[in-house]
Design brief:
The structure holds two protein chains of two kinds. Chain A is an alpha/beta fold. Helix content of chain A is 25%, strand content 33%. Chain B has one domain. Chain B is 23% helix and 36% strand. The chains are: A alpha/beta, B alpha/beta.
Amino acid sequence: MSSPEMTTPMPPTNAAPEKPKANAELERLASQDYKYGFVTDIEEDRIAPGLTEDVVRLISKKKNEPEWLLEYRLKAYRRFREMLAENPAGPEWANVHYPKIDYDGIVYYSAPKQKKKLESLDEIDPQLRETYGKLGISLLEQKRLHGIAVDAVFDSVSVATTFKAELEKKGIHFCSFSEAVAEHPELVRKYLGSVVPYSDNFFACLNAAVFSDGSFAYIPKGVRCPMELSTYFRINAAGTGQFERTLLIADEGAYVSYLEGCTAPQRDENQLHAAVVELVALDRAEIKYSTVQNWYPGNAEGVGGIYNFVTKRGACRGFRSKISWTQVETGSAITWKYPSCLLIGDESVGAFYSVAMTNHHQQADTGTKMIHIGKNTKSTIISKGISAGRGNQSYRGLVKIGPKATGARNYSQCDSLLMGDKCGAHTFPYLDVANPSATVEHEATTSKISDDQLFFCRQRGISEEDAISMIVNGFCKEVLRELPMEFAVEAQNLLSVSLEGSVG
Amino acid sequence: MSTAIDSLVRLRERFAKDGPGWLVAKRDEALAAFLEAGLPTRRLEAWKSTNLAPLAALEFARIAPTGVATIDAKLAASLPAGVRVRSLAEVLRTEPDRLAGRLGRLADPKKSALVALQTACLEDGVVVELDAGVCLAEPIRIRFHSSPDVYDRPSAAFPRLLVVAGEGSEATIFEDFDSAGAARRAAPGFTNHVAELLLASGARIELVQVQAEPAPRVHFTSVHAEVERGAHFASHVVTLGSGLLRSELDVRLLAAGAETVMNGFFLGQDAAHVDHFTTVDHAAAHCTSAQEYRGVLADRSKGVFRGRVIVRPGAQKTDARQSNPNLLLSDEAAIDTRPQLEIYADDVRASHGSTIGQLDADALFFLRARGIGESEARVLLTRAFAQTIVDAIRDPELRGEIGARVERALAGLESVSADRSGAGGAAPAPEKGGRR
């Protein structure tokens, strides 16, 4: 947050004397900028670290899963072992660097201990409720005030879903993934792995073997979901990984807007988060998926932080179906994430709006894939990268126009803003076009905040910090305006917090 | 190991021990690097879109001595003092140590398997030396043509070019890879060409390359240039062949004021596979690069463009531009394009753009409204699309000559002039079946 004593700007005499001040400011802010770094002391039910077939069976058993799901997990587990044998370091093509992960040293299941099945939200462990209160998503308050249905995932297990009953009246199923397996097995079985197959990639495969919970939503034909659905993910326990799985199905003509938020405590170790999100949109259905990712990014020296290796993909299966991804990525030590759209139905539409921010030693390799298969499909990619400190980030996006995708249209724009001479911004677009009637455009620019812009603001009595925050918000405007209201405010705050003191 | 590798390793023994010791060592080192890496496969990111399997299957009958590289004799006789254009073999024979430390300085066998192969099989080529301050008005023409006898059985050619440009020197070098009219009886073969250009401060070198070897010959070119303070390197690549081609260009800007212009036009016809891979490395502050590669893909051809722009830490005030517009003319043509920016400095201007599309429907309409027939209008617009690149060639005579060749190649395309009014501008209506 910007400090009140900064409101009287120093006259900008010359640049040199400003530096020490900015550095001091940076240090001051570095210690305060991650406000979700607390740990909740809560009894947890966790299994021993390690990845074996028994662990997979144990997770499945703990969740009372049917046989077919266990089979699915085991298939994934075996494939993962093969992949690990082929390539013990995991995939290396991304422009990120990290020490080898010991996949046998991770705790694959950790859940807040609960004695009996919860009857209502009021029975949730008070300490847990308090945690969510600190995160600003008091489950009960939220219910009354905002009209957003929330599914909260704590470590690996979904702890509460609000508004469930009201949604059910409209025929909308919104619940934790485990509940969905128990209550709507036919839907889960039909769609699980249909967008992201278990063998899709290294981390998706790991997830398919050991996923513990996540959110599930099904919007029936012609229903417009009356409220925003939201999931809040929180990693709490030490030494664990989080592997959640989200499955969202919008049946013909349905509409849903879905929000996802993430935080984690401040720890010196790196924790792995490998999630899978699958979206299915049928004829004329629309899914709007927004993420504000604020996992712990590690400290200023690059120690600790979450490895966020996530596979997100949506399939526009029907005529005119539409999927849009909006993401604000400010957290995580490493982000490796490519929310994608398979545009299968004719005239389907995919969109990707992203702001990625890297500061200190953060690394991000993120982007999207737009696979045009149907006729007259359209996609838009707007990616804004902000790199400060020693942060490094890459946009990596694929636009593929299949030979049958007549009249396909894509527009991509990737802009990077660099702050400081130690950071990096990279762009790796892949445009593969096999249809002559397609129109594909890609543009990328790289720039910094110009001295003129800063001078203009400062001359008008705006402090340097505020000016930077304003310019950055302006730079990201096209993406931020895609976010639902509540998230847009949070995202803007996150951006200014992560950026303060990064220019000097 | 593939048949191709076996046969080449065997064939190179004819000359592997020839020449000065440093060269023999270099060849052996390169061979070791090549054998370790093997022929590139599509598993490598840099070769993802290009499949060299047709090459791996060839059994080479001979390595053509690079006597086929002919230097324009008229020009050679009239060269001013301070300019030497000689065959590589001649330089190695008369002054064995002259090129040590220069030949192979930029083209690193460890970084590219095909460069390693070229170095391992290096026998002859062309050496151009320009003394400080020499300006050459006429272009130096070098023609590498695979003569008909070469085409009877699979043969490989490993021509090399080394240009050492002294301070403030100026020249245009024209490399022509042609088939000498042997297209009809072409046999599979492989041309692997490496060019190295060392530009001292203030030098201005223009390299013009026309690659028009027909299928089924596989063509690989790798150009490496090092540009010192205030020097200017311009590269013009025109690709008109119908076979499998990969053209790499690697320019390093080493000191302030270094500039490069990288232009390319590629035309894919029949089942051609044309792959252009450029890298420009801004290693110092205050350097400029401008890149424009234009592609026209017809018939069943496939185009690939990958352009890397690297701005190293500290390379402030860099100005890097890159653009890659492409025209797809046929249903079966395809293009993969990967413009890439890797930026590690903050005070830079860097941009890239890439487009893939058809001829502008409005422009077509404009011409037709003025009484120009559909097919003629299409030819006109496609020519205009290519002409931008040709026009950038400095030497007027060369410009005219290459412009005419591009025009001839475009006129020969059926898909340019064919009436394609159904598939072009307006998108067809969606299918009706099964929709509400």
